[in-house]
């Protein structure tokens, strides 16, 4: 399978574009184009029409026109369409994974598992679509009946990041569609191709025209502004940086528009003296180096208690040294390129700042070559709290290890951040496990595991890491309005 053949099968047919957002084919042809690059080679993979505010407004109108009919279908009808889309995504998973690796850089095996994860969201919400329940309330007077019904919020605008371009889209769209909402989606400019391929499959699955709309754009600001300020859009669902989340929240405030945000993180990964050190090393490798560390739930700060510090640091550094960096299509590669030169520069500046303040590089520390965006997986010790890498999300393959003595103090330090997305810890003492799990101010806590994302569980953060949850039955609630019906005179 080649990336060219995968792209041709899914994206090179002009009629697919014209139906993604309702923009007439001729209009699309006349728009300026933007290029999508392979971060491993710098090759241009495709050139896409750069849609702006007029096209977004058109897509919103189209979604708005489709909204009532979509909401009026039975839950089973919506569910059947989600099942069909799920089936097609699995059937084309190799194509989707190769497009994903080409535009994003992650190793092909990780891309395949992301596509499977995306399909799992469709499956979950195909099932969950049939389980939307209201309630009856015992009325305080005999002549009344009180009932709560659930209805779709209406048209949803979704904006997604480049690091999980397939699963982030599925995680937003599938509960929205299950709830009865039409959607307008803007994928990240770096990774729009897998989104296009997924939408082409949705079209094959038979979703009614206008229910799913895809916007290709070279930047997010104008599309985001239109989605936030157009009154036909009732809700914004965004995954990306906290900085952009703040801006979108401000833009939504005039209309008190509903928002769901999955934002940045600064995950602590704590290894206590009573931990199984080998298991903690395995978990840390997963939590830190999956997707080359470009994951919102990436372990950003590794705290290791002094009794196991040396053993952990030595074993972990040895394993990191074995990780192979390269093109995601090459077998055996576990670390692909970083998404762009900005990401590479952030790695370099975090490392330089740490070294200047006294940190020691145990392995890695440099770009793989003078050109490209490949970076050596890096372990740093003698880390202190004033270093930038301990305060900010690095979003790259950099593992800073911080020694600690006191268990209570490490929890306070782990919580001392504006973020509250994911945290991890390894321990065996049951009393400690409960105490620490409850004390960590994070939306998700991995206990003796380095990986916890699942369509069955609520994904999301506290503090400035977000609002709302995605996945599980809770993810569906975010796309439903609650309406209270009071019947009197009985
Ligand atoms: P980003 O916020 O720059 O971009 C994300 C999306 O927002 C892209 O589609 C982009 O085009 C769009 N965008 C950018 N500026 C915009 C604006 N002014 N108005 C509207 N849309 C705009 O983030 P990124 O660099 O692509 O992704 C990395 C960030 O995303 C990290 O901070 C990471 O932690 C976070 N993230 C969070 C989760 C989560 O579930 N919490 C998951 C993945 C990534």
Automatic annotation (TrEMBL):
Record carries keyword Oxidoreductase: yes
A GO MF label: oxidoreductase activity
Name listed for the protein in its UniProt record: NAD-dependent succinate-semialdehyde dehydrogenase
Active-site residues (renumbered): 262
Gene3D superfamilies the record matches: Aldehyde Dehydrogenase, Chain A, domain 1, Aldehyde Dehydrogenase, Chain A, domain 2
Positions of the Aldehyde dehydrogenase domain: 32-484
Cited PROSITE patterns: ALDEHYDE_DEHYDR_GLU
CDD domains xref list: ALDH_F5_SSADH_GabD
Keywords: Oxidoreductase
Organism in which the protein naturally occurs: Rhizobium helianthi
Superkingdom of this protein's organism: Bacteria
């Amino acid at each position: 399978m080649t990336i060219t053949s995968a792209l041709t099968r899914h994206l090179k047919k002009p009629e697919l574009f014209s139906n993604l957002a309702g923009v007439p084919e001729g209009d699309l042809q006349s728009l300026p184009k933007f290029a999508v690059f392979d971060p491993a080679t710098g090759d241009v993979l495709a050139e896409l029409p750069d849609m702006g505010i007029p096209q977004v407004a058109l897509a919103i109108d189209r979604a708005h026109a489709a909204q009532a009919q979509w909401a009026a279908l039975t839950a089973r009808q919506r569910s059947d369409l989600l099942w069909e889309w799920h089936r097609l995504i699995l059937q084309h998973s190799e194509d989707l994974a190769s497009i994903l690796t080409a535009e994003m850089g992650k190793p092909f095996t990780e891309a395949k598992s992301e596509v499977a994860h995306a399909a799992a969201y469709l499956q979950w919400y195909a099932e969950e679509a049939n389980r939307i329940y209201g309630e009856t309330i015992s009325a305080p007077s005999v002549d009344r009946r009180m009932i709560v019904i659930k209805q779709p919020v209406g048209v949803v605008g979704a904006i997604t990041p480049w690091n999980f371009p397939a699963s982030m889209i599925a995680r937003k769209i599938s509960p929205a569609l299950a709830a009865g909402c039409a959607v307008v989606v803007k994928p990240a400019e770096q990774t729009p191709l897998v989104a296009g391929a997924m939408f082409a499959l949705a079209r094959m699955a038979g979703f009614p025209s206008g229910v799913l709309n895809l916007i290709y754009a070279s930047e997010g600001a104008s599309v985001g502004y239109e989605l936030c300020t157009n009154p036909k859009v009732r809700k914004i669902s965004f995954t990306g940086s906290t900085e952009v989340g703040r801006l979108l929240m401000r833009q939504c405030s005039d209309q008190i528009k509903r928002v769901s945000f999955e934002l940045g993180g600064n995950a602590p990964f704590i290894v206590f003296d009573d931990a199984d050190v080998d298991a903690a090393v395995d978990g840390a490798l997963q939590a830190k180096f999956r997707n080359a560390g470009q994951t919102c739930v990436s372990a950003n700060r590794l705290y290791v208690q002094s009794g196991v510090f040396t053993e952990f640091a030595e074993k972990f550094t040895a394993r990191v040294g074995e990780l192979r960096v390269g093109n995601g299509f090459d077998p055996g590669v576990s670390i692909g390129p970083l998404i762009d030169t900005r990401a590479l520069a952030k790695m370099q500046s975090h490392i330089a700042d740490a070294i200047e303040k006294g940190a020691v590089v145990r392995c890695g520390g440099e770009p793989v070559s003078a050109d490209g965006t490949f970076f050596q997986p890096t372990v740093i010790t003698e880390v202190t709290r004033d270093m930038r890498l301990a305060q900010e999300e690095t979003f790259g393959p950099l593992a800073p290890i911080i020694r600690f003595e006191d268990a209570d103090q490490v929890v306070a330090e782990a919580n001392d951040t504006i973020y509250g997305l994911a945290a991890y810890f390894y321990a065996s003492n049951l009393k400690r496990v409960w105490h620490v799990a409850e004390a960590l101010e994070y939306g998700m806590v991995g206990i003796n595991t380095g990986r916890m994302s699942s369509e069955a569980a609520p994904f999301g953060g506290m503090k400035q890491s977000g609002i709302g949850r995605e996945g599980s039955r809770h993810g569906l609630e975010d796309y439903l309005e609650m309406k209270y019906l009071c019947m009197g005179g009985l």
